[in-house]
Amino acid sequence: MEKARRKQILIGILKWAALALMAGFVLFGALSRGTGSRTPYPQVEEAVLTGLDMSQMTEGDNQMVRRLYGLNPSDYEGVTLYYPSTNMGTDELLLVKLRDVGQQETVKTAMESRIQSQMDVFEGYAPAEYAALEQGIIEVRGNYLLLIVSKQQESVRQAFLKVL
């Protein structure tokens, strides 16, 4: 009888320890998500644009960011957009520095929607462009988000991660 009671107490202690450990992970995740990079926006922008072939892209202004992504650039600390210069192009870059990490989901959803709408356009008649969009990267790191569709996307992603 005493052995069964000790086993019950031990199981109870282990349950509480597991619960405390899970709460710690959740708290750590919430706190680390809330922090952002202190790297200045111009430095991050320069890092991602260096080595990117922009010959097939046009620099976007605030109006184009609103049109393509439904985002108001003045809501963010920094926004850089390069989009396809032709209707048949898919090369695109959007870099956003958030004012607050609470904006993360809104921007990520806008990026995902943009990729999906482009895929809908090219599906069925432009397989190479469709495949390029499927391989596109959306990278979220604290207060920075990057969308890149390009032949150099992996090197741009690595430059982005390195500068942060």
Please describe what this structure looks like.
With 164 residues, the protein is α+β, with helices and mostly antiparallel strands. It is 54% helix and 16% strand. The chain is built from six helices and five strands. The chain has helices at residues 2-34, 41-49, 62-69, 104-122, 127-134, 153-163, and strands at residues 57-59, 78-84, 92-97, 137-141, 144-149. The chain has a five-stranded antiparallel sheet with strand order 1-2-3-5-4, with helices on both faces. β4 and β5 form a beta hairpin. The protein is elongated, with a radius of gyration of 22 Å.
Name the poorly predicted regions.
none
| Category from helices, strands and their pairing | alpha+beta
The helix-strand sequence is HHEHEEHHEEH
* Terminus-to-terminus distance: 59 Å
Q: What is the rounded Rg?
A: 22 Å
Q: How many strand units?
A: 5
Strand order of the largest sheet: 1-2-3-5-4
Proportion of residues in β-strands: 15-25%
Envelope shape: elongated
Total DSSP helices: 6
Task: Summarize, please.
The model has no long low-confidence stretch (mean pLDDT 89).
Describe the SSE topology.
Layout: H1 2-34, H2 41-49, E1 57-59, H3 62-69, E2 78-84, E3 92-97, H4 104-122, H5 127-134, E4 137-141, E5 144-149, H6 153-163
Antiparallel strand pairs: 1-2, 2-3, 3-5, 4-5
Helix pairs in contact: 2-6, 4-5
